[in-house]
Amino acid sequence: MSEKMTKGVQILRGDPKKAILKLSIPMMVGMFVQTIYNLADGIWVSGLGPNALAAVGLFFPVFTGIIALAAGLGIGASSAIARRIGARDKEGADNVAVHAVILSLLLGVVIPLTMLPTIDSLFRSMGARGEAVELAIDYARVLLIGAFVAVFNNVGNGILRGEGDANRAMLAMVLGSGLNILLDPIFIYTLGFGVVGAAYATLLSMVVTAIFIAYWLFIKGDTYVDVTLEDFSPSWEILKDILRVGLPASLSQLSMSIAMFFLNRVAITAGGENGVAVFTSAWRVTMLGIVPILGMATATTAVTGAAYGERNIEKLETAYLYAIKLALMIELGVVAFIIIFASQVAYLFTYSETAQAIKPGLISALKTLPIFLVLTPFGMMTSAMFQGIGEGEKSLVLTIFRTLIMQVGFAYTFVHYTGLGLRGVWLGIVIGNMVAAITGFTWGRLRIRALKRAFQESA
């Protein structure tokens, strides 16, 4: 089969430093716009009152789980395609892409079939009653019916990232999030749909994004991979290859949500309801700082995957270390900004008279909690590198170690066995993350060293 040399493929096979830079910047932009959308969505819905917010909140963990599965499948496809591009296996890359699309369609059908009949009882099992539950059910039905679109978009985005086409991957993310921001007030208020309008806005924006991705992959024909049934040859090896990275990636995202649940409980223990208000507010600000790292991580998975497929461990190591260095420099600037302007940032969450009570605690949190971002690149780029070389289980172990064991464990210990109070939560997260980052980086370096020896012996 003849090979098409797209610009993305040339980037993946070229200078690893330039590849990290060219692939990470578009993904940072796309993820930043998604973050802005999440904030805007909450602001628009909040205007409908507490029941509407509660309805969206009830469905949020369910939707988070769906997106985690979809995003994980996208990461699995991205890694498998990148490795085959590095190995000059065009036919294999095509077959991976078709497998990934078929998996996305199957998952997209299974989700609504299994969840629609049980969503009512699920919400009520959470203890919710009254109007909030009715609104949540109506809201959930719209998005569950459209689940296949969400899954397809994440997998399609993963295919584009895997072949180095970060610009179109970014465009899909920006298009969906930007359109959603514009449609929210129209469907919620202008058309009078209320909270269900937010679901319609999300679904319509996802459908428009899916049309663009489908056009690029199936019709335009200028992608590296050819996604046609002619290129489909059922393969358990390809299926296992995608899922070996995809399932751990999904579980990694879920583990972060579980860690947040436990950290909320620790914050409540340390400072009551005000404590969790301080924590969630400071965490939202800190999570803005994680966006550059996430963008860099998607690039790292693709570039290290291509280098691994090429059996060029020196290139893999260069990309891995350069991504850490670049992310570290960005995070030092982000952390410095948050600490210096902690009072001004805190004002955004405490401008109302009733919120003044948490302002001192929030300023204190903003001067400590963001420090954990400094060493985060060491752990997250190692996880991304493990995904790139097809060892997703190692990435999962590292994520669970960082979030559930180290961050939650240190925060719990400091709150229950010292007199630090809420400050113990911030210090626990920072120190726990530092230990995990150093451990992860050490593991990554050892794995690369082992790969060098293995490839040299087999040469």
From TrEMBL:
Molecular function (GO) terms for this protein are:
antiporter activity; xenobiotic transmembrane transporter activity
Q: Which InterPro entries match?
A: MATE_fam, MdtK-like, Membrane_Transporter-Flippase
Compartments annotated for it: namely: Cell membrane
Keyword Transport set for record? yes
- Sorted alphabetically, which Pfam families does this protein's record hold? MatE
Query: Which keywords annotate this record?
Result: Cell membrane, Membrane, Transmembrane, Transmembrane helix, Transport
Membrane topology annotation: Multi-pass membrane protein
- Write down any Gene Ontology CC term: plasma membrane
Report the superkingdom from the record: Archaea
CDD domains, per the entry: MATE_MJ0709_like
Q: Which NCBIfam families match?
A: matE (TIGR00797)
- Official protein name in the record: MATE family efflux transporter
